[in-house]
Amino acid sequence: MTEAPGWTLLPDLACRSVGGGVVWANDESFAERENLVERAEPGYRPHTFGNKGQVYDGWETRRRREPGADHAVVRLGLPGVVRGVVVDTAFFKGNYPPFASVEATAVRGHPAPSELTDWETLVPRSPLEGDRKHHFDVADGRRWTHVRLTIHPDGGVARLRVHGEPVVDPDLVTPGALDLAALENGASVTACSNMFYGSPGNLIAPGQARVMGEGWETARRRDDGNDWVEIALAAPGVVHLAELDTTHFKGNAPGWASVRGGRGDGEWFDLLPRTRLQPDTRHRFRVERGGEVTRARLDIYPDGGMARLRLIGSLTPAGLDALTKRYQSVTQTM
């Protein structure tokens, strides 16, 4: 089995759980377009028939009897730079498309699907096989807000994954009140001690965790150590409020936690000293110390799970400048 590319560890910018949605498809006769961006891996139950035939966990169009192709347009929940695309035909064996292509566009505001224009190719027309994941590298370094999947000529696709790096629009940022640790603002997880049950990237995802599986959870420790996560913040800033959310973690929440900050490659210093936590609780703490930070480290003692980490603060002038330059560097050629 071929190992998945490294970019699959990057966030899925199109996923429903980060705000993505399938805003239009020219046909969905057999299975709904919305399935394309579901977070869960596709499933299949044989001999499960509805009014449209066998129920598929994916998007499936009718059998085309005239020239053409089928299309689905996805609004990215996290606009950003796309590093790779996965077209997953799981469980589509006799009804998968023989070819697919992916295009992208970038717009401001909230246009209707019919108003989207200027599509650029990310993945040229490429052959597909049934019941497998197809990984396509993307070399274009620009920021996108929407992608369009085209299947040639028809058939079914279970999931479309659009992996990349979120890039926030500085016009939509309030410099004095910003979650410096938020994925949607450009923060990223750089290291962690353990992710046996859940990815540390979930800690900085948008919205509230709906179930325990949408948080970060480690294996049970049998030594004297503790688990931790390190995060590169969206831009240099000063943290004023820390939120440590153990929602859904009841018998497996950490007993205590601390948050430290850092500048560059220098020493860590306390933002929130070791503090007792409660299960299934959103904890909010004032941060009275630290000054400017560019990175943060969450330590949990000794192990367990946490739903979300929020570090609300203000950008420094240098931080706002860095965030603005990042945006300009991936939009100026569009």
UniProtKB/TrEMBL annotation:
Keyword Hydrolase: yes
Name of the top EC class for this enzyme: hydrolase
Source taxon at top rank: Bacteria
Keywords, ordered alphabetically: Hydrolase, Purine metabolism
EC number: 3.5.3.4
Domain Allantoicase, residue spans: 19-166, 186-314
Pathway membership, UniProt: Nitrogen metabolism; (S)-allantoin degradation; (S)-ureidoglycolate from allantoate (aminidohydrolase route): step 1/1
Family matches, as NCBIfam families: allantoicase
Recorded family membership: Belongs to the allantoicase family.
UniProt name for this protein: Probable allantoicase
Organism encoding this protein: Saccharothrix xinjiangensis
Lineage: Bacteria, Bacillati, Actinomycetota, Actinomycetes, Pseudonocardiales
Designated gene of the protein: alc
